Amino acid sequence: MTEILTTADGTAFVRTPEERFADLADFDYEPRYVTVDGLRTAYVTAGPDPSDSATATILLLHGEPTWGYLYRKMIPALADAGHRVIVPDLIGFGRSDKPVERAAYTYAGHVEWMRVFLEATAAERGSGPLHLFGQDWGGLIGLRLAAENPDLFDGLILANTALPVGDSPGAGFDFWRQFSQDVPFMDCGRLVDNATANAMSEAAIDAYRAPFPDESHMAGARQFPLLVPVSPDDPAVPANRAAWKVLERWTKPVLTLWAPDDPVLGGLQSLITERVPGAAGQPHDQFKPAGHFIQEDQGPALAEAINTWLAHT
């Protein structure tokens, strides 16, 4: 029977049993935890000691319905190149606690949770440059975080993401949004496999299933598609419009690494490269074969592109 826990302010949540994460394929990093708004937030780190002030840190933000495991093909190459890597699990995903009520999940709330997370882990990032890599919701959250805290990041790396202001990213997203509400049980492992160009191993598919043993753990996975501001009256639209005003003046380096064959967000790369000044003249790239979860299909190539870019930035 699933145990329902409660934060001091009365937020009910569940915590995925640790045994669900036993023997993860190619992801033997020791989880660390900080408390954010009464909820345990999980993350892993790799790379040099943060006491080296010259070390750049890369924050790898996942989307939905994935978790930090998504970056297992990128972490080793980034760390071996001398970069500090920090990979959190968003609240509601991975090893992080999962509020059971959908109303606990809001766009603004996740931006604030991530800001507090970065504040709580500042010592582990060190004083060197901080770069964001955001894909899917990792970009939606990361771009808002950067726009609202412009001194926080020294560079942005974006892959198959968006920052909607009241309009849908397209038919592919519309299908996913409806499917996510109608499907009786959300098999997150199979969903990720279906959104990649290359076949995944059964071990990897099981790793994406691990955080969600039953429906009580899936409030975030169910609610996230509804949080994308695709209608003009969505409460996130004013904040996203304000974020775009900041990004349209953003001159720090911005790199996009895209999967153009992604049926959900594959056609949106130019929205960033043409609107954000810091993207001008950067070595933007596209990767094939790759689906929505480009990290699964092209993880090592993405890491190589990031390493090359940071070496010349």
Task: Compose a concise summary of this entry.
With 313 residues, this protein is α/β, with parallel strands linked by helices. The protein contains eleven helices and eleven strands.
Characterization of the model:
- The chain has one domain: Alpha/Beta hydrolase fold, catalytic domain (Rossmann fold), CATH 3.40.50.1820.
- About 35% of the residues lie in helices and about 15% in strands.
- It is built from eleven helices and eleven strands.
How would you describe this structure in keywords?
313 residues; alpha/beta; Rossmann fold; 8-stranded mixed β-sheet; globular
Task: Give the topology, please.
Elements: E1 5-6, E2 12-14, E3 32-36, E4 39-46, E5 57-61, H1 75-80, E6 84-88, E7 98-99, H2 107-120, H3 122-125, E8 130-135, H4 137-148, E9 155-159, H5 171-182, H6 188-194, H7 202-209, H8 219-227, H9 237-247, E10 254-258, H10 269-273, E11 285-286, H11 294-311
Parallel strand pairs: 5-6, 5-8, 8-9, 9-10, 10-11
Antiparallel strand pairs: 1-2, 2-7, 3-4, 4-6
Mean pLDDT: 96
Structural domain tally: 1
Q: Which range does the strand content fall in?
A: 15-25%
What is the name of the CATH class?
Alpha Beta
Coarse structural class: alpha/beta
Radius of gyration equals 18 Å
List the helices and strands in order.
EEEEEHEEHHEHEHHHHHEHEH
Order of strands, widest sheet: 3-4-6-5-8-9-10-11
Distance between the termini: 52 Å
Share in helix: 25-40%
